[in-house]
Each structure stands twice: as C-alpha cells, then as structure tokens.
Amino acid sequence: MTYTWDFHSVWQYRDLFMWGLWISVVYTVGSIVLGILIGFLTCAMRLSGWRILSFIARVYQEIFRCTPLLVQLLWFYYAFPLLIGASIDNRVAALLTLSLYVGAFYAEIFRGGIVSIDKGQREAAAAIGMSSWQAMHRIILPQALKRMLPSFINQSVIQFKNTSLVSVISVADLAYMAAVVNGQTYRPLESYTFMAVLYIALLLPMTQIADWVEKRLRVSD
Amino acid sequence: MTTTSTATAPVIEAIGLRKTFGTHEVLKGLNLGLARGEVVALIGPSGSGKSTFIRCLNRMEHPTGGEIRFRDKPVGESFRDSEAAIGIGTLRRHVGMVFQHFNLFPHKTVLQNVTEGPIVVCKRPRRETEELAKDLLAQVGLSDKHAAFPNHLSGGQKQRVAIARALAMQPDVLLLDEVTSALDPELVGEVLAVIRSLAEAGMTMAIVTHEMAFAAEVASRVLFLDQGVIAEEGSPAEVILNPANPRLQAFVARFKA
C-alpha cells in the first residue's frame, strides 16, 4: 500500500478544527456544570428520606443510565418537539441532553460517596450536638468528596468524549468539523486522524491527573 | 433549680423507657436516674439492651415509649428547645458519648477533633477552645499528638482522643458505650486509667462495660440488665462481688474465670 499522507490540505482548515474543539470544550464544561447541579439535586432527593422524591429521582436516573446517549439526543431533538408542539434549537437539545445524561451518573457517584462513609461518623457528629446539616457539611461531605473524586474525574473524561455525539444533530463540535473538512478535502484519513489527535491531546492530561489523584488519595487514607 | 434539689434530683433520668426494633422489644420499661457525680455501671449479657439503653439517654436511639428527663425537664422530639421541652441538640451538648469504635473524624487532626464541637456547635472562640483542648489532651496523656491524624494512633490513643473530644463540650454527663471492647488487651489499661481519674474528679457517668473488676472498682452503683429489664441493681459489692440472683451469679462467674 502506498498511501501518500497529505496533512497540508487538512492543515488549511485548522481554524475550523480549533473552533470545533472550542465548541466541544464549551459543551463539555457546560454540561458538567449543569450536570453537577442536577446530580446534586437528584442525590439530595435520593437521600431525603421522602419516598416519592426518592422514587422520582430513581426513575430519572434509570431512564438516563439505561438508554444510549445517542438515542437520547435523537429523542430530544426529533421526538420531544412533537410532544411539546414547538421546535427546539439543536444546541439547546444537545446541552440539555448531555447535562441530564451526566447528571444521572454524577448523582450516583455523589450518593455512593456519601453512603460509603461509616455511620459512626454521623453518630459522633450528632453526639457533640451537631445538627444533621452541620454533620453533613463539616464531617460527611469532606470525607465523601475525597472518595468520589476519582469517579467524578473519570465520568467527566467520558463526558468529553460523549460530546462528539452532538454532531449527529448538527452541532458544530470537533467531530462535526472533521466531517466538514473531510467533505471539502476528500482526505478522511488525515481529517479523522487529526481529530483523534486533538481529542488525545486534551484528554491524556486529564486521565493522568485522574490517576495521580487516585494514587494520592489512596496514600492519605 | 435550688441548691437543695441539685443534691438529690437526677441530672438525667429515664422513666419507663421502652424500645422496640421491629417486633422485638429490647427495652421493657426501664427506670434510671443519675445523680450528679454518680458513676453507674451497666453490665449484662450481649443483647440485654445495655447499649440501646444508654444510646437512648442522648437520643442516639429514638425510644418507643417512656420519657427522658434532663435537669428536671422532659426531652422533646425536635432538635431545638421548645417552651415545654429540651431539644435533642441541647441534650447532646450536655451529655457526651464515647463509642466502642472511637469514631474519630479521620480528616481532622487530634486537636481539631477535640475543638470541633465547642467551635462549631457552641460557637466558642477558637483560641480559648484550643487552650482547653490542649489541657484535655494533656489530661489523657496525648500532649505530643496535637497535629497527628487519627489513622496514625493506636486504638488506645484514639479512644483517649475520643474521651477528650467528649470532655471538650464540658458535659454534665458522660455516656461510655463499651469503650474498651474494640481494644487490644494491652491497651485497655490506659483507657480505664483515664476513666478512673474522671470518676475521681466527680464526673457523672453511665458506663456500659464487660470489665467486671473495673466496674466493681469505679462504679457507685451497678445495674444488671437481662432481657430488656433491670434484673438487679445495687452497690458493686451486692451485684458483682456477692450476687444473689442465679442468672447474675452465672454471668459474673464467666468473667471472673
């Protein structure tokens, strides 16, 4: 096989790639921030002790954890508008879906971290007269956050990769731009390889940080 | 409260206390009043309800029936005080507890473990609290461990920090729930020594323990719990040294062996 690599033609479109990468980062960060809020709320509902709240939270979590993100994106962009009788902007649908998706996983990570703390900690806090709120934010959460950090970082790395799916509803992220460049240059090998390199360049440091955090936390335990 | 009544009225009192887990009645209407400076030891076979009983006294457990009274006022159902009743939060500020498994806060240093309650719950000034905490740590023989984290301490050291943490709240009553049961035998002595000195200093205590010799030595009154009732009650001499009740005889004999 004598394939002649030609990154030059693809390199001409570097601004497009950079813009796409920026959009991917924006959707990742945006959905992580919203996902944290959703996850926090869902986790609070799960642990509230109110059966109905806990049940609603549980139903939401299972729906979003048990359907593929691609299916959710298609549903929110093509099906949901028919249900509410109004069209929905593809960027809004993308951010909403990504946030709800990651929020369901974050909620489970938060909940797992909190319930993993020995109940003796809550009792010791209560025994010196702390309210349940004081016990939560002074004693339980600082320990739980440490424990949930590695899973949280991992889920966020996955989330960055997941944003590539928004290209199917025409959000101009990195994956979408690579397809555009491929259409212009007819150079799929170069276009898609360059895209992959950009993903690696951003995510490799993240996974290294995750490993480092995990190792450090294990030592301090 | 007048001075004459403090001499006789119990600091903390359980009246007809009942506790049911599911269908199993663990406490079948227990009465106990702790006078100021009194040290009461609770002994009995496991499952007799000793731990559940003292955990009801600071409302770690929710009693199914009966009443807890603190300083002659009923303890209510809410965390905060009301006009008619003392809140659970207030009760716990004045009634300290030490646990079998220490339950120190692993993310805080020894000193922070001790100062946490007074600073966060009682809003006392930091510097003053740290002075108090250092005094207490000196009392329990841990002056050199202020900056250490709990996972670097031995079991006996952890339990002594836990005692200092409870004392930092300057409680009226201290509840000790099998505080030496999780310790290696060679570390039991150092914890018992701390409790002994507290008893000598006049601290009001309820002690759940399997250390019969220690209970006999330090307690002013001993309660033998059996199947959710107080089966025997009296001085250490009556209950531990010369028991009349055959079940109690059998129980004590096992520990003397």
Features:
heterodimer, A: about 220 residues, mainly alpha, MetI-like fold, 9 helices, flat, B: about 260 residues, alpha/beta, four-stranded antiparallel beta sheet
Quick structural gist:
The complex is a heterodimer of chains A (221) and B (257). By secondary structure, chain A is mainly alpha-helical. Chain A has helices at residues 7-11, 14-47, 51-65, 69-84, 90-115, 119-127, 132-162, 174-185, 188-220.
* Overall outline of chain B: globular
The global form of chain A is flat
Oligomerization: heterodimer
The CATH topology label of chain A is MetI-like fold
Span from first to last CA of chain A? Answer: 54 Å
Mean pLDDT of chain B: 92
* Count, helices of chain B: 10
Number of strands of chain B: 10
- Measured by DSSP, the beta-strand proportion of chain B falls in 15-25%
Low-confidence stretches of chain A: none
**Rg estimate of chain B, integer Å:** 18 Å
Q: Based on the coordinates given, report the CATH architecture of chain A.
A: Orthogonal Bundle
Strands of chain A, count: 0
CATH class of chain A: Mainly Alpha
The number of helical elements of chain A comes to 9
Largest sheet, strands/sense/barrel of chain A: none
Order of helices and strands of chain A: HHHHHHHHH
Structural domain count of chain A: 1
Explain what the structure shows.
The complex is a heterodimer of chains A (221) and B (257). Chain A has 221 residues and is mainly alpha-helical. Helix content of chain A is 82%, strand content 0%. Chain A has a single domain (7-220), classed as MetI-like fold (Orthogonal Bundle), CATH 1.10.3720. The mean pLDDT of chain A is 94. The longest helix of chain A is centred in the N-terminal third of the chain and has 34 residues, at 14-47. Chain B is of the alpha/beta class and 257 residues long. Chain B has a 6-stranded mixed beta sheet with strand order 6-7-8-3-9-10, sandwiched between helices. A 4-stranded antiparallel beta sheet of chain B has the order 2-1-4-5, covered by helices on one side. The termini of chain B are far apart. The chains are: A mainly alpha (221), B alpha/beta (257). The interface between A and B is medium-sized, with 19 and 26 residues.
